[in-house]
Specification:
Blueprint: H1 3-24, E1 43-51, E2 54-55, E3 60-65, E4 68-74, E5 80-81, E6 87-89, E7 96-101, E8 104-111, E9 117-119, E10 122-124, E11 130-133, E12 143-152, E13 159-166, E14 173-174, E15 178-180, E16 184-191, E17 198-207, E18 209-212, E19 216-219, E20 232-234, E21 253-255
Parallel strand pairs: 1-9, 1-10
Antiparallel strand pairs: 1-2, 1-5, 1-6, 3-4, 3-7, 7-8, 11-12, 12-16, 13-14, 13-15, 13-17, 17-18, 17-19, 20-21
Length: 278
């Protein structure tokens, strides 16, 4: 006895009980038994997505069953899809399943099988986007605005752009993704930074493939007095002696903070005849 016939027998039994109950209470019951089996399990797909041999990260994988849009998922940072989360597609056994990646048709297809598990690596032809990293602006002790420029969408109709940033070229942080359908500049503000600290960042664009701009650095403004990164003054102490009727000067040097520097006397006064040039 197969599952379908067992399911039908159980339904017939339920209907018979309901009919008997209806007759006992003097009511009427009419029912139509549809010849549909129990729900069928979906088909799971998983694999990698590449363009020109390179993994395609952060792209939308859209499934089509029999030519109609079905479920979709997104590739991870290594260009994989269907691993976490799993990618389950619903349809009818025997239908053709095709895919697009970022709106670009994949070369591969499959045949739908209820309950199937298919490792299907997808490849797409096309040109990745191009992006450049600009300079940071509006830099304060704790925030900065990062700037980039999407110079080409490649063959994608829409490109996702964002910035990676951190205190090293490992970055470790990303800004919120922005969607762009045309070339042009974009920016994002980062906050919660440490004063007197150097940060790295670069622009990233994801379309048919992934592109990154060059690494750029900026340094947040120096901390207030008493904080890390305050200015350090180095000079000769005591000052060297002068000679009668000879010009006299001493150069002060500073490290830390953000140039240009401005010099002033915090307390006391200079010997007669000496001045401080800021």
């Amino acid at each position: 006895m197969n599952l379908s016939s067992m399911w039908k027998r159980a339904l017939y039994l339920v209907l018979a009980l309901l009919l008997a109950s209806s007759l006992i209470t003097g009511g009427m019951l009419s029912a139509v038994l549809a010849d549909d089996g129990p729900p069928t399990p979906p088909h799971r797909f998983y694999g990698t997505v590449t363009c020109a041999g390179q993994p395609v990260a952060g792209a939308t994988v859209q499934a089509y069953v029999g030519g109609s849009p079905a479920e979709s998922t997104t590739t991870d940072s290594e260009g994989r899809y269907g691993y976490d989360p799993v990618f389950l597609v619903t349809g009818t056994t025997g239908q053709e399943v095709t895919f697009t990646v970022g709106g670009v048709p994949a070369a591969e297809s499959a045949t739908y099988q209820s309950g199937g598990l298919t490792n299907l690596d997808l490849t797409i032809a096309g040109t990745p986007p191009t992006v450049t990293t600009g300079t940071a602006t509006s830099v304060t002790q704790t925030s900065a605005t990062l700037n980039g420029n999407l110079t080409s969408l490649g063959t994608a109709s829409s490109v996702q752009v964002y910035f990676e940033w951190g205190t090293s070229t490992s970055y470790g942080n990303t800004t919120t993704t922005q969607s762009k359908t045309s070339t042009g500049s974009f920016s994002a503000t980062v906050s919660g930074l440490n004063c007197g600290t150097t940060y790295h960042f670069r622009a990233v664009a994801v379309g048919v493939g992934t592109a990154t701009g060059s690494d750029v650095t900026f340094t947040t403004l120096a901390c207030d007095g008493g904080g890390g990164g305050a200015l350090e003054i180095t000079t000769t102490c005591p000052l060297p002696g002068g000679r009668l009727n000879q010009p006299y000067s001493v150069t002060l040097q500073a490290t830390g903070g953000t140039p240009p520097y401005t010099w002033s006397l915090a307390s006391g006064s200079l010997p007669r005849g000496l001045t401080l040039s800021a």
